[in-house]
Design goal:
It is built from seven helices and seven strands; from the N terminus they run αααβαβαβαββαββ. With 182 residues, it is of the alpha+beta class. It has a five-stranded mixed sheet. It has a two-stranded antiparallel sheet with strand order 1-3.
């Protein structure tokens, strides 16, 4: 859990402040929106950061704040779709920052431009919350440690005695998080 919580690090905060400073000069209204999303994310961390799990609807809200923040940085190069069954899902526990970490991984490990956007989709299938993204290979592939996935799996095992499932067919990357009753 501690490793998942460290996802939103001071490094991320400093980068976000730099982006906000740039936006203040060029696009003041966008800067206000950007800072609103950043403040909402940190409010979530203060409120839920020490909890072992949060309701799925809270986690989706946090992930949306993060996605909105990133889409202001990467204008027109990403699209997030949340199915109606995910929007209606209530009460299932998830580790804090689990969804934010998956969306961050999708953004970090895939190229995305307006010509070749990154598509991220959340659905529910067979008792799992599925986070899917198309694979848009980066020109220079860096080393990946798969730490977020390993930490998430370990956390799900410790909290709920269930594993996540990961599938990569070369075109689509899917992480399935089991929906368990608390």
């Amino acid at each position: 859990l501690t490793l998942l919580r460290r996802q939103v690090t001071p490094h991320f905060l400093f980068n976000s402040i730099s982006v906000a400073m740039s936006l203040v000069l060029q696009q003041p209204q966008t800067a206000v929106t950007f800072l609103h999303h950043l403040a909402s994310m940190y409010r979530y961390l203060l409120k839920y950061g020490n909890d072992f799990h949060v309701p799925i609807e809270q986690e989706i809200g946090m992930m949306m704040q993060y996605y909105e923040l990133m889409s202001l940085r990467h204008v027109g190069s990403m699209q997030l779709t949340i199915s109606s069954d995910v929007k209606a899902c209530k009460g299932y526990p998830l580790p804090p920052l689990a969804l934010q970490g998956l969306v961050e991984n999708a953004i970090k490990h895939n190229a995305h431009t307006q010509e070749h956007p990154l598509y991220i989709t959340l659905t529910i299938e067979d008792g799992y919350l599925c986070v899917k993204n198309n694979i848009v290979p980066l020109e220079s592939v860096g080393q990946t440690t798969k730490m977020v996935l390993a930490c998430m799996n370990e956390t799900m095992q410790l909290l709920f005695e269930r594993d996540i499932c990961v599938d990569n067919d070369g075109n689509t990357f899917v992480v399935k998080i089991p929906l368990v009753n608390s």
